[in-house]
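FAQ: What does a multi-protein file look like?

Like this. Sequence, then tokens, then the next protein.
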Amino acid sequence: MKTSNQSTQLMQSMLDLLIPPVENLAGAGGLNLEEELLRMSTEHSKYTGVIDRSIDAITRLLGSSGLNSQVTSEVIQQFESSDPRLFELLLEIVYTAYYSDTRVHERIGWKSGALQPDGHPMPPWDESVLDTVRKREPFWTRVN
């Protein structure tokens, strides 16, 4: 993933357009999701290069001003029209990273953490469960 200050600003601008701030919660660009997006793009082959290719596409659409420009909704719409599959993957990875963030969980009232934090221990294994099965004759043919 590109790491220059300009590309980071461009990406944050793009992320905030995709998921804007709401009340007391920053948009996707303000939540500093870059590390999570990088992790996802390196661990999941489906997302390999999605962020870099998206930044490149948006930079091309911005023209000569390139990385020094603010991304606008018109640029995002042009990007979506020019490469719908890449745009779909970008949305998917951004939404996944955004909705995995605990700050978003708090904002939407979603319980974070382990589903069973106290655990539910299983009872010890009872070998007698197999007694009935062991009494049956084999239904297969032995082959040596």
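And here is the next protein:
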Amino acid sequence: MIGFRGEEVKHGEKSIDLGSRKLVAMRDVQDALAAGATSIETAANCVVTPSARDFLQQHGIELVMDKAADASAPAASDDYASAPAAVKSQAAVNRRLFTTPEAEEIKKEICSVGRKLWMRQFVDGNGGNISYRIGPNEVLCTPTLVSKYDLTPEDISLTDLEGNQIAGSKPRTSELLLHLEIYKSVPEAKAVVHCHPPHATAYAITGRVPPNMIIPEFEVFVGKVAISPYETPGTKAFAETVLPYVREHNTVLLSNHGIVCWADTVTHAEWYAEVLETYCWTLMLATQLGVPISTISEQHGSDLLAIKKKLGLPDIRFDTSRMKECQLSDLEVPGSIALEPTPCDGNNSNGGNGGADLESLVKAVTDAVMEGLENRE
């Protein structure tokens, strides 16, 4: 029996043989479901996109990836006619992955999010970068030296997890290594957004993290924020600064630089940037009122963490063995906020990278907050 687009359907098992495919995308698995498949077979070296895998799991379709890898490569173009067969085959896979309907939709989403970042003044000039892991070893990312407001789908590049560009006409972002280290460390991370929102970055340049248990939405979607030490942007050393934190924090402050967020979609990663920036801005406004800042009780805080856990979001406070280190809030006295920095190797105890002017600024802010606490009735 012949199934959709000429593929063989085995009788009884309702299995669709995709052994000739080098890549299986969303449209392929949707067609398989429509054909009544209960399983599909692919070659062991076939690339199955993340959304296609999710679709198969949601609809109970088994994925069997032990078919002999006997698929022939597409006809070679003059550009790589002399390349080894394995290179030709992989190049064909990359080209198809880069132009699948799923990839085109993600490119549009990246451009939309880039425009949101620019409109909210989270980036300026050519600053910031966005990426999405579309395959096991393939990442879509923004280009270098292009304003996020002006992004078009044609600007997006495709790279591997080592940073090698494998498709796209414009050079990939110079800070891609930061994204790749997160993907390697956090398997569930599918999207990364790096930007420079002013109020969150203000915390980053003073070596401070915002206190917790003040606004519910922040606790659920972001929560405890870590701060990484400074390294020159674009370097491998810079990319590796976030490794101690990203497993238990979906948002990290980058000392003297900005922030980075990861999530299951590009849109959600941008949401976390919005949540953090609004929270930091609100705290700065509140400290100017000259009255104490109220906090959420421990019981209500536990309720928020329970909601967060159900959503599958990470939080260092889930680790009960580190409860003393990771208490729900940062309170020194009930109802107050603490402005102590998160311990971070590479940062001095008074902030990101020290300096008399920086210490004076931090002291002035701290004194203003403490004066408000002393006047509390």
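Q: Is there any per-entry metadata?
A: Some entries carry free-text notes. For the entry above: Confidence is low (pLDDT under 50) at residues 1-11, 69-81, 331-356.
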